[in-house]
Design goal:
Elements lengths: L20 E4 L5 H12 L4 E5 L2 H9 L3 E4 L5 H7 L3 E6 L7 H15 L3 E5 L11 H16 L3 E6 L10 H5 L2 E4 L11 H13 L6 E5 L7 H12 L4 E4 L2 H10 L4 H16 L11 H6 L6 H7 L7
Parallel strand pairs: 1-2, 1-4, 2-3, 4-5, 5-6, 6-8, 7-9
This protein binds NADP nicotinamide-adenine-dinucleotide phosphate.
The site of NADP nicotinamide-adenine-dinucleotide phosphate has 26 residues, from helix 1.
């Protein structure tokens, strides 16, 4: 079953005082499932918000409380929050992302949630042409206005995104349009560790944390790491924006997402706008463990790129 390896194999649903639980939205996604697993392992009272009965059943089978909730449906979020006093809010890229963020914040406010941790993004900007940098910036603003206590996490690009390029990588090419721009890729495991820390400790209220991996890499550097770990040569292929767009479309991506990615890799990575070339040691400072490197990520996920 998907992601089951992350959960405790033998446990029962633990009972915790009503009104003191942590609701995790996005609980079946990359960050959320890792966060739920970590909170659960550490004995914190966590509730996974899910959209499908089989997801709820999967969590419950692993001893983790789960409830129905959809950011599209405000009443369902209100219901999911009933026994909670903290919330991890994550919205996904899409045309309704801004609305989903507002729904989450409003439901938290109505439920009297003590602390909301919002998974925003490092390049959040209300004027950005990149939809998934624009929408979270609006949610950040609503959160600051309407929530008594909040923390905002601003991660850089996820190492897990590299899997989206697995098809060309297996052919020996890593196509990009970032030129010599640099990026401090981060592992979602590190984001989840930070989220768990700020949700379960005091002192993070009103803070905005930029989270990055431990090294700034050009796309050629990434190709070198791929070559070293995968034992076959991978070269970085720089494409001008319009060609990169066509390559993304040929790979099956819709034009809305492809256009956003072209903007992101040109404006944020190639040109370094909106903190695209930022590197921080915040993961290490907050969790006591250094952020994982691209090399470590690739070694662990070699199978995803195996020919
Ligand atoms: N990728 C990057 O490089 C990057 C960098 C910075 C920030 N971010 C931000 O990170 C977030 C994505 O995190 P992720 O990779 O962990 O996500 P993910 O793996 O794509 O998972 C998305 C989660 O959101 C849930 N979801 C989707 N629609 C929902 C709805 N209407 N109501 C409630 N839940 C819903 C999904 O549930 P189902 O299983 O039901 O679909 C799933 O649990 C986005 O906000 C993105 O902008 C990404």
């Amino acid at each position: 079953m998907r992601n089951s390896y992350l959960f405790l194999k033998e446990s029962r649903i633990m009972s915790h005082p009503v009104g003191q639980k942590i609701l995790v939205t996005g609980s079946t996604g990359d960050i959320g499932r890792r966060l739920v697993a970590q909170l659960s392992r550490d004995g914190h009272p966590v509730v996974a918000m899910c959209r499908k009965p089989e997801q709820i059943a999967d969590f419950e089978q692993h001893g983790i409380e789960a409830v129905f909730g959809d950011l599209e449906k405000p009443a369902s979020i209100a219901k999911a929050l009933q026994a909670c006093d903290r919330m991890f809010l994550l919205t996904v890229a899409g045309r309704a992302q801004q609305e989903h963020g507002r729904h989450g914040v409003e439901a938290a406010q109505a439920a009297g949630i003590r602390h909301v941790v919002h998974l925003s993004t490092g390049d959040a900007n209300p004027n950005s042409p990149i939809p998934w940098a624009n929408a979270p910036a609006h949610t950040d603003a609503v959160l600051k206005q309407r929530s008594g206590s909040w923390t905002i996490l601003r991660p850089s690009a996820f190492m897990q995104n590299l899997v989206q390029s697995a098809v060309p990588i297996k052919k020996g090419v890593f196509p990009q349009t970032a030129g010599r721009g640099v990026l401090a890729w981060i592992d979602t495991e590190d984001i989840a560790r930070v989220a768990a820390t700020v949700l379960t400790n005091e002192g993070h209220e009103g803070k905005e944390y930029y989270l990055t991996g431990p090294e700034l890499l050009t796309m050629s550097d990434v190709a070198s790491h791929l070559t070293a770990v995968l034992n076959y040569p991978v070269r970085h292929l720089h494409l001008p924006g319009p060609l990169f767009f066509l390559a993304l479309r040929a790979g099956g991506l819709d034009s809305w997402t492809a256009r956003g990615l072209v903007h992101q890799f040109i404006d944020v990575v190639r040109k370094g706008h909106d903190f695209g070339d930022l590197i921080t040691d915040t993961v290490h400072v907050l969790t006591g463990t250094p952020a994982r490197s691209v090399r470590e990520y690739l070694v662990e996920n070699r199978a995803a790129f195996a020919r």
